[in-house]
Design goal:
heterodimer, A: mainly alpha, Ammonium transporter fold, 14 helices, B: mainly alpha, 2 domains, two-stranded antiparallel sheet
Chain lengths: 311, 246
């Protein structure tokens, strides 16, 4: 009766679990969530609550309906719901939040086989779904409730000349006193979460750094203006996307080189859409497109074992 | 015999629905299902062409040389599409404008060419007409189902009539291309779930009739192949299990 378990390497055991990693991401998201609530008022709490609750419920029900093992306890649904909520405006109607979350969880994640099998980041796809459905839910227009802001347009809309108004100062941009989605405005809170994730070794610092760096350098080349390039870095969902969505384990390359290629590609597409595309913001499309390219990047950058044949 | 005729007619509705089971004619389905009226007119026009072309091709099935059959079918189909097009232009100019290029594109609709190739060239005129009618109605049904979902939830209206309580709850993405693919996929999933369970059988039934490489294949039917695979698999699995045990 004594069983000898024979398994292939690696044999090193770690206490790291999906649950622990997801918990770390949730902790890292908290400063952003708090900042968003302070800046936009209690409406943002409602959006976050609806999204998280819908995310848990839809994954729970889906698993029951298709008779799959219950996966709610790995906390990934909460992370998806929270990230999606932070990508929305504080005054998004509740039914739109629910619809976007159901789409993200059921269509993007569960239908492809659950966590680990989805080819695209659920939150980013949910954001794009809502951007195309309800243009106002994701884009500009939200007014911070704690300060007087002359214009409700997001800085990116102002820069691209779609809407008129004065740009907020760079300092305000850093603190998040500007129009935009709940989670994307407060750069300081995002950086706090970034530092925590890097400290906990949940993510590598390269991807966000290279992503943002690429956008900065390309903006500098195109505009030839330091201030404008800094605005490009601080505005829109760039920082939030780079830290929390371009670092998703499932939908980005595993190899270090692959991650770098991924980040450069994200930055390039973001800049191209921002400067030459019809949408003012391109981060979500950039990440989604690079998600789709991830398997190819991985294949291209696969490590060759010592003495192994060329792949 | 009568029962047989009825089954030919009914087959196209669900069991072999051209859009949702055979996955033919995807382009007009996605493009013309944004509104119920467009879907209805597209479905009726395609059904008319399908019935007529099936009948004519069935009549001519002994005359058309095998090697040039596809061009011949296309000439026949294009003839009927032109008739429908001119009739619509004369009597229903608004609808004609709304359908635009998709009316002319019925010529290359896979359902019509597919039925000519798979059915009309081997069966008599009455059967072919019934098959065309059934398949056409199946196409119409699928289009209507998709258009209803997309228009009601995407635009808050049905056949152009506003539904007041949905006015604030529109989901515009459904009327765009991504929404079309989404609804299409979900409908296929539903039909797969509730439709007749065939599994591997389905492939057998298609056999060599519509297979483009039938002349090169050399097998009498794909059923032969299926049996080989079905017979071979359990053995392989058994061997593996034994190896595992050992």
């Amino acid at each position: 009766m004594n069983k000898l378990t024979v398994s292939s390497s690696p044999h090193i055991h770690t206490s790291n679990s999906t649950q622990r990693i997801m918990l770390d991401v949730i902790i890292a998201l908290l400063p952003t969530a708090v900042a968003g609530t302070v800046i936009f008022g209690l409406g943002s709490l409602l959006v976050m609550g609806v999204c998280v609750a819908t995310a848990i419920l839809s994954e729970f029900l889906f698993n029951i309906i298709v008779k799959k093992e219950q996966t709610v306890s790995d906390l990934s649904a909460i992370v998806t719901g929270l990230i999606l909520a932070l990508n929305l405006r504080a005054d998004t109607p509740w039914w739109q939040c629910m619809l976007g979350t159901v789409f993200a969880i059921i269509v993007v994640k569960c239908l492809f086989g659950g966590l680990g099998c989805n080819f695209a980041n659920p939150a980013i796809t949910g954001r794009i779904f809502m951007m195309m459905s309800f243009a106002s839910a994701v884009g500009g227009g939200a007014v911070p409730s704690i300060v007087e802001v002359s214009s409700s347009a997001t800085p990116l809309e102002l820069i691209s000349g779609n809407k008129a108004g004065a740009l907020p100062s760079l300092w305000d941009m850093l603190l998040g006193l500007r129009g935009g989605a709940i989670g994307e405005v407060c750069a300081l809170a995002i950086l706090l979460g970034f530092a925590y994730l890097v400290y906990r070794k949940v993510i590598h610092f390269e991807t966000p750094l290279i992503f943002v760096g690429t956008v900065f350098v390309l903006s500098l080349i195109i505009t030839n203006d330091l201030t404008l390039s800094l605005y490009q870095v601080l505005s829109g969902g760039l920082l939030f996307g780079a830290v929390f969505m371009a670092t998703d384990y499932v939908t980005t390359p595993i190899t270090r080189t692959g991650k770098m290629v991924f980040a450069v590609g994200c930055g390039l597409i973001t800049v191209l859409i921002r400067f030459f595309g019809s949408y003012p913001e391109g981060v979500s499309f950039a990440i989604l497109l690079m998600n789709i390219l991830s398997p190819y990047i991985e294949k291209w950058t696969a490590k060759r074992p010592l003495g192994g044949k060329k792949a | 015999m009568k029962n047989n005729k009825l089954s030919i007619l009914l087959r196209g509705l669900i069991a072999e629905n051209p859009v949702l089971v055979l996955v033919l004619g995807t382009c007009p389905t996605l493009a013309q299902s944004t509104s119920v009226i467009a879907a209805l007119s597209m479905g009726i026009a395609a059904t008319l062409v399908l019935v007529c072309s099936n009948m004519v091709i069935s009549v001519l099935r002994k005359i058309i040389p095998d090697t040039v059959r596809i061009p011949c079918y296309i000439v026949v189909i294009a003839g009927f599409v032109t008739v429908v097009q001119l009739l619509m232009q004369a009597y229903l100019p608004d609808l004609y404008k709304m359908m635009g290029v998709y009316l002319a594109l019925i010529v290359v609709n896979c359902i019509i060419l597919g039925r000519a190739e798979m059915f009309a060239r081997k069966n008599n005129v009455i059967d072919s007409a019934l098959d065309g009618l059934g398949m056409g109605l199946g196409f119409l049904l699928a289009l209507l189902a998709m258009a209803t979902i997309r228009e009601v939830f995407g635009n808050g209206s049905f056949a152009g009539i506003e539904i007041s309580f949905l006015a604030d709850y529109k989901i515009p993405i459904l009327t765009q291309a991504p929404g079309g693919f989404l609804v299409f996929g979900i409908l296929i999933a539903i039909v797969n779930k509730i439709g007749p369970k065939k599994g591997a059988e389905k492939r057998k039934n298609f056999s060599c009739e519509g297979c483009p490489s039938a002349s090169l294949c050399g097998k009498v039917s794909c059923a032969e192949n299926c049996e080989l695979v079905a017979g071979g698999e359990p053995d392989a699995a058994d061997t593996k299990k034994e190896e595992g045990n050992a």
